[in-house]
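Example (one chain per record):
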Amino acid sequence: MTDAERIAALEARLQLLEDKEEIRHLRDSYHACINDGRYGEIVDLFTDDAFVRLGYLAEYRGRDAINAGFCGMGERERFFIKQYIHSHRIFVDGDTGTGHSYLQATYGRFGTSYWVVGRYDDKYRRTPDGWRFAEMTIEFDYTVPTGVGWSGDALHYLDPQNLPVGIRRS
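Predicted structure:
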């Protein structure tokens, strides 16, 4: 291997590491915006044609819908959410990438606290402004009241289609 080939290989490895770190920062920025209540900043993390699917809760296509959807979270009455991610795996292929991360969250509304657990699956795209989400989806493993726990009769108390009989949605 020539010196030029070694330098090119090192530059490619360095670029991959920098890309992964920027994507990791992108995912962390999303959760920081959610946790800090900065919903109006979330739209800047997405491409113009991005798609977001938050399990059974919502779908947004394009920046206008994404902005309206996340800003609407901040307008909810008696709403609380904190999200924590882990095991973020990133795969880069040129100017695109994919990633997976696991979510544990606490959610509250109208005095009821919930445990929320799921997995984010993302598609990323390099833009002139840096890496952005082109697609973000989450599938929930469970969304249950803390008093019930995840071993109860239902796994998705926040899904209006899946509530146990006699449970009122807040």
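Caption: The first strand starts at residue 46 and ends at 54.
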